């Protein structure tokens, strides 16, 4: 129990240290079900054999996991930004490439407006009425043609925008798949590392062979040692109570770790 409490303190100090340095990276908005929950991670840490046997190794596993987790989120953010940029470039290109059609429609509509304005400039009212009577019939034809042409162009452009949206969606899904795959792999690594099947990819400055007690003293600058009550022998009746509170504390700390992990993601 005492050792587990030390582990907990170590880990919290570590998570806080890592967490403070972490930039809030973008992650997929809906967390797919196959990704580990933060609660699950915290639970994994507290139930792993390595955590109990060798706190330093489990901390190394976790440091490594968090570093990779951050890199994965960072990569996802970059991918996502790339998708947005690509789509915005393609949209810009649509406007550039349809400049001729746009000019055609604008010119045709301005010709209609100019002919109407010309009638309004006539001196006598009768002339003005007659002008609009004549021009209106002609304008009806050109307005109809203009509307038909504009509608045709619009259909083509809508299709192109639809394709861009589709590409953007596919781009986002690729980024998300990569995030999910990498995160799942990272989680598998963490499980393997905590199970002792895999070596931590990062190495601590102090050799991992150093006893757990000395390792805790090296980290006491960040994590204060557990209360001295752990060294005092406890009489049988209070053991149950002590274990209860320790379990409760561990649960609280698990919750805190889960919260810190939530901040990281
Ligand atoms: C327009 O009307 C004015 C008076 O309101 C007159 O002086 C002028 O000669 C007219 N011009 C034309 C082109 O009919
Ligand atoms: C509409 O398109 C046709 C065929 O491209 C063209 O001949 C006509 O001038 C256009 N009409 C307008 C109002 O631009």
The number of E-state strands comes to 0
- Helicity, in percent? over 70%
User: Which word captures the global form?
Assistant: rod-shaped
- The oligomerization state is single chain
Biggest sheet layout = none
In N-to-C order, the SSE pattern is HHHHHHHH
Which residues sit in consecutive blocks of at least 5 with pLDDT less than 50? 20-25, 204-245
Structural class: mainly alpha
H/I helix tally? 8
Gap between N and C termini: 30 Å
Tell me the β content.
Answer: under 5%
Heterogens: 2-acetamido-2-deoxy-beta-D-glucopyranose
pLDDT average, as an integer? 75
Task: Determine Rg (CA atoms, Å).
Answer: 34 Å
Domain Protein TsetseEP: 58-177
Biased composition (Pro residues): 223-237
InterPro entries: TsetseEP
Keywords: Signal
3D structure, described in words:
- This protein has 265 residues and is mainly α.
- The protein has a domain at 39-98 and 137-201.
- Helix content is 78%, strand content 0%.
- It has helices at residues 2-21, 38-47, 49-53, 55-97, 99-120, 125-195, 212-218, 236-264.
- The two termini are 30 Å apart.
- The model is unreliable at 20-25 and 204-245 (pLDDT under 50).
- The structure holds 2-acetamido-2-deoxy-beta-D-glucopyranose (NAG) (2 copies).
- One 2-acetamido-2-deoxy-beta-D-glucopyranose binds at residues 104, 108, 142, 145-146, 149.
Give me some keywords for this one:
single chain; binds 2-acetamido-2-deoxy-beta-D-glucopyranose; 78% helix; 0% strand; rod-shaped; 265 residues; 8 helices; Protein TsetseEP domain-containing protein; TsetseEP; mainly alpha
């Amino acid at each position: 129990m005492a050792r587990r409490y030390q582990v907990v303190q170590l880990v919290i100090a570590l998570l806080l240290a890592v967490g403070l340095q972490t930039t809030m990276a973008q992650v997929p908005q809906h967390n797919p079900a196959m990704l580990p929950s933060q609660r699950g991670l915290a639970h994994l840490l507290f139930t792993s054999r390595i955590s109990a046997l060798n706190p330093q190794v489990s901390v190394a596993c976790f440091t490594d996991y968090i570093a990779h987790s951050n890199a994965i989120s960072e990569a996802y953010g970059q991918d996502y930004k790339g998708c947005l940029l690509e789509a915005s470039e393609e949209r810009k290109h649509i406007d550039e490439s349809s400049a001729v059609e746009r000019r055609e429609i604008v010119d045709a509509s301005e010709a209609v407006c100019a002919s109407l304005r010309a009638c309004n400039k006539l001196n006598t009212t009768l002339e003005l009425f007659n002008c609009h009577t004549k021009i209106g019939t002609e304008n009806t034809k050109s307005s109809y043609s203009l509307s038909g042409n504009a509608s045709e162009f619009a259909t083509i452009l809508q299709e192109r925008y639809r394709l861009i949206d589709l590409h953007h969606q596919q781009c986002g899904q690729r980024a998300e798949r990569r995030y999910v795959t990498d995160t799942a792999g990272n989680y598998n690594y963490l499980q393997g590392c905590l199970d002792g099947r895999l070596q931590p990819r990062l190495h601590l400055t102090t050799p991992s062979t150093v006893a757990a007690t000395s390792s805790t003293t090296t980290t006491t600058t960040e994590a204060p040692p557990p209360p001295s009550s752990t060294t005092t022998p406890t009489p049988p009746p209070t053991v149950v109570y002590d274990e209860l509170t320790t379990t409760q504390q561990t649960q609280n700390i698990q919750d805190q770790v889960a919260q810190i992990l939530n901040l990281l993601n």
